[in-house]
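Moderator note: this is an archived Q&A kept for reference. The question asked for a predicted structure of one protein chain; the sequence and the answer are reproduced below.
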Amino acid sequence: MLGRRMHHAGPWLLLALLLYPVLACATAERGREETPQYDVIVRGGTVYDGSGGPGRVADVAISGDRIAAIGDLSEVRGKQEIPAQGLAVAPGFINMLSWADEPLLIDPRSLSDISQGVTLEVFGEGWSMGPLSEAMKEARRRDEKEAGWQVAWTTLGEYLAYLEQRGVSPNVASFVGATTLRIHVIGYDDRPATPEELVRMQELARQAMHEGAMGVASSLPYTPAVYASTEELIALARVAAESGGMYISHIRNEGDRVFEGLDEFLRIVRESGARGEIYHLKVSGKENWGKLPELIHRIEAARAEGLAVTANLYPYPASGTGLAIVFPPWVQEGGHDAFVARLKDPQIRRRLVAEMDMIPPEDILLVSFRNPALRPLTGRTLASVANERGTSAEETAMDLIIEDNSRVGTVRFTMSEENVAREIALPWVSFGSDAGSIAPEPPFTDAQPHPRAYGTFARVLGRYVREEKRISLAEAVRRLAALPAANLRLDHRGQLQPGYFADVVVFDPATITDHATFEKPHQLATGVQAVLVNGVPVLLDGHHTGAHPGRFVKGPGWRPGP
């Protein structure tokens, strides 16, 4: 019966039946090709994986928060595809010295750094957002009412978890600050820690390490850190070493006594057993610029000895700090209120004029005031303000701190451009902005920051890679991402490899440029086309997407809670 029906159906039915298996297979194959197999595919860029090796044209596929595959993926599709032909694709950059800890509470976008490809902000240069005593929390509350945010945490781990819960665009991590530990236990007194106090400081440091801190950080030119002995710092660094953490330091002196500062740092690393890093490697003061070759030689000799020592820097010849740095430690003992009170004492003022560590006042740019009445002075030099007021630079500095009731933000031109370029070429140096991650809009435009807040990472790639050819693009990517990730012992971050977290930056090596200047700092860098954090695009076509996928990245000593 079936045969008779087939016969009467004619040749076309027979042909269709014969071809059906072939057509069905072809349709299924097309379905497989059209069905997305990955969440995101970055298409056709030149991939620099962070190893320092040459780039190769490849696709990068992402599933969830991880890199799934790298290679020729032309036969598969992603739910979202990001074209990258003619562009560089690299692991997200790591800001080894970030002050975005407070700005992220105001603006979670991290716009100035995300626009440069930064996917991890590392906080804690001496001061960290925890652990806080009740007195420390109360002092912060007085200052932060104006900023529009409140202290909703006590420990460092709680702060970082709070950021993640609120939602921020970059990943975040932090060292625990040796200054913060000292204030918590001792306050602002100029005296050694007692044995009992040192044990308490170690306990707090150990708790921070177990909560995920990257290590212990010091910033020794500033009060009250300047009161800490080398032995105190060795004891705290040992706690970091217990958990595989790092001791990282703004060394005690970067100018006339820079070798003494380095010797102390190396002693702390050697005796504590911790890995060590120097914050913003530099030699300050024109009379000291010639010391850089010997400084480098001593660091490399320590590395050859087997000490795990590295450094970071920002690529500018000017530093940024408070005007209070020019005052001797004794006048700042007891905290800010005691400092201001002393500055009002005529007898103390006469003594200070002779003791202040004042660089040429024309090299000090005033950039940040709390008092609105003083903000018209923003962008002027201390020399010009002193001349206008008819007072000496020393007296003007005292008066400005009294009138502003703050440290007064400054930029100081103390370094050599050639020295900066020489430091950038060192293979054991990574990068940190030493600035907040902000936006060119209020409230951030109320102050005039150092241009490093907007340009550090783009400047490395634009000026020092493309224009001056101090290092190759592949080497720059290694030192912007893989080197700091390895130094911090991060888990599956810092490289583009299958299984690693999908922190990715897509940029144009031919156009990436920093635009911020000392005169006009509030200008975003350009040339970065896309940034993904944990697999989520936070920047596309150079514009922020509004996504906040950042996470609390934990250090090697982290222990899960009960």
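Archived answer notes: The first strand starts at residue 38 and ends at 47.
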